[in-house]
Amino acid sequence: MIKTLKNQGQRDKERGKRPKTAQQVFPIYAAHSDGIFLVGRQKYAQTWGFTDINYAIASHEDQESFFLRFSDILNACDIGAVTKLTVILRHMYKVEVEGGILIPYKEDNLDGSRREYNGFLGSKAEEANRVIRHLFVTVTTEKRSLDEARAYFTRVGTELASNFARLDSKLTPVDGMAKLRILHGFFRPGEDFDPSAVTFDADVRDYIAPASFRFKRDHFRSAEKYGRVLFLKDYPAYLKDRILADLTDRGRNLILSIDIIPVPTDEAVKEVEKRRLGIETNIANYQRKQNMANNFSAVLPYEMELQRQEAKEFQDDLMNRDQRMFFANLTIVHTADTLAELDNDTEGILTTGRKYTCQLAPLKWQQMDGLLTCLPIGVRYLSYLRTLTTESLAVLMPFWVQEIQDSGGIYFGDNAISRNMILCNKAKLQNPNAFLLGVPGSGKSFSAKELIVFLALATDDDILVCDPEREYAALIEAMGGEVIRIAAGSKDHINALDMAEGYSDGDPIAEKSEFILSLFEQLDDAGITSKQRSLLDRSLGDVYSKFKRKKRQPTLKDLREELLAQPEAEAHELALSLELFTNGSLDVFAHQTNVDTKNRMVVYDIFGLGKQLKAMGLLVVTDAILNRVTENWRQGKRTHIFLDEFHVVFENEHSGEFFNSAWRRFRKRNAFPTAITQNVEYLLDSVLASTMLSNSEFIVMFNQAASDREKLARLLNISPEQMSYITNSEPGCGLIRYGRALVPFKNELSASVAPKLYSLLTTRPGE
Fold first, then answer.
1. Contact 187/210 with Cβ under 8 angstroms?
2. Which residues contact residue 394 at a Cβ distance below 8 angstroms, ignoring those fewer than 6 apart?
3. 3-state SS, residue 37
4. Do residues 128 and 414 touch, judged by C-beta distance below 8 A?
5. How many CB atoms lie within 10 A of CB 144?
């Protein structure tokens, strides 16, 4: 027997007495809060969780890259330690799902809407897959003390994190409490896990063990659940990389584990040479026998020729192709409520294995050993091992599809691949900046309104909407908000020169000057000269100095009078260009603010400004929103901002610069801005807008025009396979870029489930 396997076998034989209680089944002799478990006399184990990646929808080239990087992870496995890769499927009950997404009632006039929206969320929870896929890697090693084990696992964890990061997968250590929660969830499903009751000084097996265990010939019973352990009996010569995904595509609790024992290269080469020598000896003996029988033209049997070829390829892999030799075994444990369901599920798993020419089989009289081997606690009690190279082991790819399921997140549709609910909590991202992109009719306005409804019903945050197309007024009014209609001749006014305390991190006058410059750029197609910019800056500073003493905010009329007071002719030209907007019919922004801007939900309706003044209206409204955001920030309150038709502001350089500056200030002031646009090309042609887009952590892409798709693909590094989800896609379907995750989604709200809300959200003509 090869030395590595012999030594490992001696370690794995270390077993206690026959268990007399359910607790004694688990070989956990000590558990520590940092997640290190003592599972033998001097055998310590540590577990890390790692995030999934979008292997399923990656391009062929990207899949090859992922495969090679995963091979590097396997090659980095420590000699003398056992590495276990584990995939855990946990079925979530409908009640459990609803507990994390349903909106609590507040006994106010919006409870009717909450009841209807909760009905919609409940229907989605019913339709969803409700199976959570967790990925873990467990390393087991022998050390003389806990301190030595800690030092070893610190080093291993750092190396693993670096290797997984190359796959865009985040590795995090699983502490003792989280590890107990995992085991508790598998053996005591449906029961609440109480962390406050756990003490690591006591026997932690009391917190995870079921009421009883009964191990039979080919299955076991854990309290009220039936379970069965299967193992991979026959490994084919050729295997597809999606076998693990298909084996774990189940709607019940399941654990799949792969135990990996690396062999030193020198020892592996000697072993292969020994095997080749044995094969050549057998071939020579066969030929000698044929010669003695005067059969000098005998052809080698196919089996011998195949053995020779495989041994040669194996040796070539080890010596020339940077491959390593591993011993590995694959085990699966699955559970069901009844024995009939268990048998049916077992047949489904066996059928999936046969589809890949793999022979899976139930363990006979070894169900307990198989169960413990499969668990991510760091023991291996089965002797069924296969000899594999790095490539043949890397085919057992644990990665498949990314999920977005943040605690406290907002429902944003269903994952188009896994069918799980997508729950987004932007507060957990590096920045909360968001974009909704799509052609008309793709569902972006509907999605924005749905998000507004959830925020209005589930949070106490403020919601501000800039509405150039009068799409949001009815919704906000129904939610009890304020609609400010800004148009020529309107009674509603917003002072363009309002400036709240704390308006800028630096010089507030300089920041306001940037806004006024952008405003004047919108007034004159020819733009303004450098002299005029200087005059505007000087006049603005003088106006604010004068009115600071009067303890009131100046207006555009006051700015015009200050310009007229300047001796330069250029100042008079500026005053003339401003006349229409101060003393003329378009003076809507030249008065003191006379509307309720303190309402929790406010829509700035600028539809009546017309096409020529829409860009100017966006500027003024955004500046007003910035003032509100600043006030809320000083009060410790979060603000959500929705800016529709966002592409308009980037048709002018100065307005684009102002919005870019405001975008950064929103983020710093606990505000979550969301830009909505159908003309993606305008954004992508602007350097500022492209920078804002690439630096935004939350981007929802609906159906895109061909030219927009190509530019988005280059900017966001989206593969052709992923782009197919935003090519001729149905309304409400597309891609979500959430931090580093890129997930295809489908989001539909049926009129039959929530008729009142649907009537407020839909933008389809006739509805």
1. yes
2. 67, 70, 71, 74
3. strand
4. yes
5. 8
Could you give the CA distance from residue 514 to residue 529 in angstroms, rounded to a whole number?
A: 14
Beta bridge partners of 604: 466, 484
Whether 16 has a pLDDT exceeding 60, the answer reads no
Q: Collapse the DSSP code of 335 into the 3-class scheme (helix H, G, I; strand E, B; otherwise coil) and give the result.
A: strand
In sequence order, the 6+-apart residues with CB closer than 8 A to the CB of 552 are 592
Whether the CA torsion 201, 204, 207, 211 is positive or negative: it is: negative
What number of CA atoms fall less than 13 Å from residue 314's CA on the CB side? 23
602: nearest Cα among 627, 567, 575: 627
List own/partner pairs for 744-751 with CB under 8 A and 24 or more apart.
744/57, 744/415, 744/416, 744/417, 745/412, 745/413, 745/414, 745/415, 745/416, 745/422, 746/413, 746/414, 746/416, 747/412, 747/413, 747/414, 747/443, 747/447, 747/450, 749/120, 749/446, 749/450, 750/120, 750/123
**Sorting pLDDT into bands at 50, 70 and 90, what band is 387?**
confident
| Residue 571 scores a pLDDT above 90 | no
**Mean of the pLDDT values across residues 358-368?**
94
Instruction: Tell me the pLDDT band of 266, cut-offs 50, 70 and 90.
Output: confident
Of residues 309 and 463, which shows the higher confidence score?
463
pTM for the complete prediction?
0.81
| pLDDT at res. 1 | 52
- Residues 52, 243: Cα–Cα separation, whole Å: 16
Residue 657's pLDDT band, with cuts at 50, 70 and 90, is confident
632 and 509 Cβ atoms separated by less than 8 Å: no
The residues, ordered by sequence, that sit 6+ positions from 322 with a Cβ below 8 Å of its Cβ are 75, 390
Q: For residue 185, give every residue at least 6 positions away whose Cβ sits within 8 Å of its Cβ, in sequence order, or none.
A: 90, 193
- Please compute the mean of the pLDDT values over residues 647-666 and round it to a whole number: 78
Would you put residue 734 in left (φ > 0), alpha (ψ -120 to 50) or beta?
left
> What is the mean pLDDT of the segment spanning 165-172?
93
Of residues 570 and 344, more confidence is placed in: 344
DSSP-assigned letter for residue 506: S
Q: Which amino acid is at 348?
A: G
- Residue 12 pLDDT grade (very low, low, confident, very high; cuts 50, 70, 90): low
Q: How far apart, in Å, are the Cα atoms of 286 and each of 232, 312, 341?
A: 33, 19, 52
Nearest to 65 by CA among 76, 51, 54: 54
DSSP assignments along 108-161, one per residue:
STTHHHHHHHHHHHHHHHHHS--EEEEEEEEEEEE-SSHHHHHHHHHHHHHHHH
Burial 586-598 (b: 16+ CB within 10 A, else e): bbbbbbebebebe
Give the model confidence (pLDDT) of 220-232 as tens digits: 999 889 999 999 9
Copy the structure tokens of residue 32.
Answer: 């520590």
Residues 640 and 401: beta-carbon distance below 8 Å: no
